[in-house]
Amino acid sequence: MSKLISLSIDVTKIDKTKLYKGAKGTYLNVDVWIDETADEDWKKVSANQSQSKEEREAKQPKNYVGNGKLVYGWDDAGAMSAPAPDPVTEEDCPF
After folding, report:
1. pTM for this model (two decimals)
2. Domain ranges for the chain
3. In angstroms, rounded to a whole number, what is the distance separating the alpha carbons of residues 23 and 16?
4. What are the pLDDT digits (tens) for 4-60?
């Protein structure tokens, strides 16, 4: 069965030194955490920039860049989706 997560990323929180060039674009590795027991829908999914083994061993704090909710395919996923966000113009884009 398919499952869907809706995730919003605050691009102003991205550590640009973690961006890297790939064959088809510029990428950022992100870890997504799911807590199905959270008390509010928007707290059930969170995203942070991936850390290297050295960063994890040094216990460096995670850089959280977004959160989201469980949308489809989960036992208690909300029946309604969030309203569409306002579009961003090129002048608004931080990178």
Report:
1. 0.70
2. 4-77
3. 18
4. 999 999 999 999 999 999 999 999 999 999 998 888 888 899 999 999 999 999 999
Rounded distance between C-alpha atoms, residue 71 and residue 82, angstroms:
9
Query: Is the pLDDT confidence value at 78 over 90?
Result: no
Look up residue 32 and give its two tokens: 């997504």
Residue with tokens 């064959």: 23
On whether the CB atoms of residues 77 and 68 are closer than 8 A, the answer is no
Tokens of 48: 């942070």
3-state helix, strand, coil in the chain (%, to 5): 20, 30, 50
What's the Cα-to-Cα distance from 5 to each of 58, 69, 85, rounded to whole Å?
31, 6, 16
The answer for residues whose C-beta is within 8 angstroms of residue 92's C-beta and 6 or more apart is: none
Tokens of 24: 């088809």
